Amino acid sequence: MTTSITAPTWPSADGLWHHLHLAPEALGAGAPGVADAAIVVERGAIAWVGAQANVPAAYRQLPTHEGHGACVTPGLVDCHTHLVYGGQRANEFAMRLAGASYEEVARAGGGIVSTVQATRALSEDALFDAAVPRLQALLAEGVCAIEIKSGYGLSLEHERKQLRVARRLGQAFGVTVCTTFLGAHALPPEYAGRSEDYIRLVCLEMLPALADQGLVDAVDVFCETIGFTLAQTEQVFKAAQALGLPVKLHAEQLSDMGGSALAARFGALSCDHIEHLSAEGIAAMRQAGTVAVLLPGAYYTLRDTHLPPIAALRAAGVPMAVSTDHNPGTSPVLSLVLMMNMACTLFRLTVPEALAGVTRHAAQALGLQATHGSIAVACPANFVLWPVGDVAELAYWLGQRPACSVVRQGRLAVDGMGLQRSTA
């Protein structure tokens, strides 16, 4: 039975939000925190933000929302997910624990192709139903924008099905969804031994048709020894460029293929995973303004030991985002807050870096920096009220799901703190 989801009916967040503790950098890079802050929301957008003592007289008579001293951050952004798929791959988790490598699992018929089979077998409605609880778990923790990739269909019909579900999820839950076409994720069984033929299908038929239907916001490729070559990646990027679509890349996860430098030449929004990223790749990304997306959930699940070059990225000034990489095979993670902890403990990010990684830099990785990732006047009202005394607690607590309240697209979409919504 199809899940019954209607258009959002959450209460408007318009009015004066006061008695807030604004987290450092919530207003943008380098911005200090504000101990007693206020936010004014009008018609679903931020109209004013600053110290409560400085609220303009014109706003003082608005209906008020009591913040009770909550710590406030921008709405979180999950900039790399594979949220729409069929089935699960717990058996492969067990195989890896027994000693099989990621490559061995894939070559044994597991990996991405097994999820392709499960995804193809489900209807669009069934895929939507399966994705709903996953999305709800992320939204409950403050996610206000999310990327959802295709790549488990590997045919025009089934890639379209995944992308249509992603669009439906955004509409049903009032959340910004960026769709990424990942047709070059793996070689479908019917194209075994014919990777060049499949890449031509991706470039000449699948991508143009899906873009024409308005289903594609960006284009990604899995460039790896078990994925697609540099030359094939470049073919896909050229096809995306011809359609005016930005590119992203699964890059340098298992080996240094030089994909990051190639992606940077195409002005890529982001390069993701990047455990084996070289100095040349870092330099190219810096010059292009490409974001490095760190995916500690996959690193942890695969029991990887090759750390991303965090110190070199930091020294070069390459922005670092953090994401769940939610997928059924290598990162079955449904908590972006947990990823903040893992980014700090596994990759040694600082707390400010981790917060920027799930807000400002994650928004940049999706090309959303003008509207998401900070609390700024004229931007849609996307912010989270956390029941903590200091933003460091978001990265400190391991496994605790804070009962936060979330203003998403100008509406109080989650009220985990039981806030008083409006008073005269």
Walk across the major sheet and give the strand order: 3-2-1-4-13-14-15
Overall spatial form: globular
Number of separate strands = 15
Helix content: 25-40%
What would you call the structural class? Answer: alpha/beta
Main sheet characteristics: 7 strands, mixed
- Mean pLDDT over all positions: 94
Which H/E pattern describes the elements?
A: EEEEEHHHHEHEHEHEHEHEHHEHHHEHEE
Radius of gyration, in Å, reads 21 Å
Termini, distance in Å?
43 Å
Q: How much of the residues is beta strand, in percent?
A: 15-25%
Number of helices: 15
Low-confidence stretches: 1-7
Keywords:
single chain; 4-stranded parallel sheet; 15 strands; 424 residues; alpha/beta
What order do the helices and strands come in, and which of them pair?
Blueprint: E1 15-22, E2 34-42, E3 45-51, E4 64-74, E5 76-78, H1 90-97, H2 102-107, H3 112-120, H4 124-139, E6 143-149, H5 156-173, E7 176-184, H6 195-212, E8 218-221, H7 230-242, E9 248-251, H8 259-265, E10 270-273, H9 279-288, E11 291-294, H10 296-301, H11 310-316, E12 320-322, H12 336-347, H13 351-357, H14 360-365, E13 383-386, H15 392-396, E14 405-408, E15 411-415
Parallel strand pairs: 1-4, 5-6, 6-7, 7-8, 9-10, 10-11, 11-12
Antiparallel strand pairs: 1-2, 2-3, 4-13, 13-14, 14-15
Task: Please tell me about this protein's structure.
With 424 residues, this protein is an alpha/beta fold. The protein is built from 15 helices and 15 strands. Strands 3-2-1-4-13-14-15 form a 7-stranded mixed β-sheet, with no helix packed on it. Helix 8 (259-265) runs parallel beside helix 9 and helix 12 crosses helix 13 (351-357). It is globular.
